[in-house]
Design goal:
The termini are far apart. The protein contains 7 helices and no strands. The chain is mainly α. The relative contact order is 0.17. The protein is globular, with a radius of gyration of 27 Å.
């Protein structure tokens, strides 16, 4: 009887340990598939749209072939005093990184977002998608003038 109980216990133990067999590989391996999937989803969730001009007072912005250094310097000063609370040049923070913004958005869209973030976040599909991507961290209206926003837009060209 003891042998039968021992045999049944051993059989139960062996069958519970069976199933999927894991092979050990030599070396070190890191899997990042979940993080990569999230990055892909975020990139796909907010499309690049250079035709969208946004919602607001700015209907057309024309950049000259050369950067206006004086305007860009004023824009850098404004950016460093107001925008760096949420935006970094090279990396995401509370808001998107600013480097290469004109490869993703039109100059009109950027200026309308600077001047009119409340309406943009309510009505513009890209602004709504960005709001969702950045955990509903709203961009506050800094009450800049069109001239100040244009200075910041010029500075963003230098990044």
């Amino acid at each position: 009887m003891k042998r039968l109980l021992l045999f049944l216990a051993l059989a139960a133990f062996v069958s519970s340990c069976g199933g999927k067999k894991e092979e050990k590989k030599d070396g070190f391996e890191v899997s990042r598939s979940k993080t990569e999937d999230k990055k892909k989803e975020a990139a796909e969730g907010v499309p690049v749209d250079l035709d969208n001009k946004g919602v607001g007072p700015i209907k057309e912005v024309t950049f000259s072939d050369t950067i206006d250094e004086e305007m860009a310097a004023r824009g850098e000063s404004t950016f460093n005093s107001i925008c760096v609370a949420c935006h970094m040049v090279d990396q995401r923070m509370i808001g998107p990184a600013m480097k290469g913004v004109y490869e993703r958005r039109s100059p009109e869209w950027v200026m309308n977002m600077i001047l009119n973030p409340d309406v943009m976040l309510r009505e513009d599909p890209i602004a709504k998608a960005l709001l969702k991507e950045y955990n509903n961290a709203i961009m506050l209206n800094q009450n800049l003038t069109e001239e100040q926003a244009r200075d910041v837009a010029e500075y963003l060209r230098t990044l």
